[in-house]
Design brief:
The structure holds two protein chains of two kinds.
Chain A lengths: L6 H24 L5 H4 L8 H6 L1 H29 L3 H32 L1
Helix pairs in contact in A: 1-4, 4-5
Chain B lengths: L13 H4 L3 H30 L7 H12 L2 E3 L2 E2 H28 L21 H27 L1
Antiparallel strand pairs in B: 1-2
Helix pairs in contact in B: 2-3, 2-4, 4-5
The chains are: A mainly alpha, B mainly alpha.
Chain lengths: 119, 155
């Protein structure tokens, strides 16, 4: 399954998504300024409703969701394959990681696209 | 008859891995990555639930986030605020150290040139380009701690 892709390609994308994450996670954290508590309230000038209306921020959130999921799942996969090796273990790790990644992407995309359509 | 040579097998030792800052930083990168990956799953599920899985409303958001944030502990900060603060700090160190590792391992920047071994020998992780990277990581993390502390506990 995952062996169709070269390991070096997976790691190259791990590094690329890592660099992308520095930017988009930086944007995500910058939107907590000047108050974390104010930024998680629904209403208010820095609230969640205003964040959902900001197209640039929402684009960053979509990129964050996909880049973070790839980076995290590939990182977990690498970690688990370093801890233990074996034919069945490797297949099980790959299958679980891909399923988990697809699950996170679907849940996140449904929530974000739905929120954008309603707002 | 040939004598069997007595060979002593040396098992790998933890001290081989845990002898310097570089090894500790690599282990930190892996452990913090695992924690952040688990957090990503939880964060996506919580925020998606708070956004009503595509049907957002203030009522759902306030109920879910109120439950997750928990009671107030210090100033304006709730239990959830402190957890988020610690996770953000972990992400900042992971990110700053990760950029250092990418520059070194993928782009090969800051790696020392091969040279003749002369006394006194300086191990490559202690040579200036790699030390500069580590000082930059520390500087970035200190700036992040100051800004994040203000946002979480003062702002």
């Amino acid at each position: 399954m995952i062996s169709m892709v070269a390991k070096s390609t997976l790691m190259k994308w791990h590094y690329i998504t890592g660099l992308i994450l520095v930017v988009v996670l930086g944007i995500h954290l910058a939107f907590r300024w000047p108050s974390y508590e104010a930024s998680i309230q629904w209403s208010g000038p820095h609230g969640v409703y205003e964040q959902l209306l900001n197209i640039g921020y929402m684009a960053a959130i979509f990129i964050l969701l996909y880049a973070a999921t790839y980076h995290a799942m590939n990182g977990l996969r690498t970690l688990l394959l370093e801890l233990h090796q074996g034919r069945y273990w490797n297949t099980a790790v790959n299958v679980v990681i891909i399923a988990l990644g697809i699950f996170i992407v679907i849940v996140g995309t449904v929530a974000l696209v739905g929120a954008l359509q309603v707002i | 008859m040939t004598e069997k040579l007595a060979t002593k097998r040396n098992p790998p030792k933890w001290s081989l891995w845990l002898r310097g800052l570089d090894e500790w930083l690599l282990i930190f990168q892996k452990v913090s990555g695992a924690i952040l990956a688990i957090y990503l799953i939880g964060h996506t599920l919580v925020i998606s639930t708070a956004l009503g899985f595509g049907h957002p409303s203030q009522l759902t958001w306030d109920r879910v986030i109120g439950l997750i944030e928990g009671p107030r502990v210090v100033g304006v900060a709730h239990v959830g605020t402190i957890i988020e603060y610690l996770i953000a700090l972990l992400a900042a160190v992971h990110g700053a150290n990760g950029v250092r590792l990418i520059l070194m391992q993928y782009f090969g920047l800051g790696l020392p040139k091969p040279e003749r071994r002369t006394y006194p020998m300086i191990p490559s992780p202690r040579k200036s380009p790699q030390l500069v990277y580590k000082y930059l990581v520390i500087a970035v993390v200190i700036v992040f701690i100051i800004l994040a502390s203000y946002v979480a506990f003062v702002g």
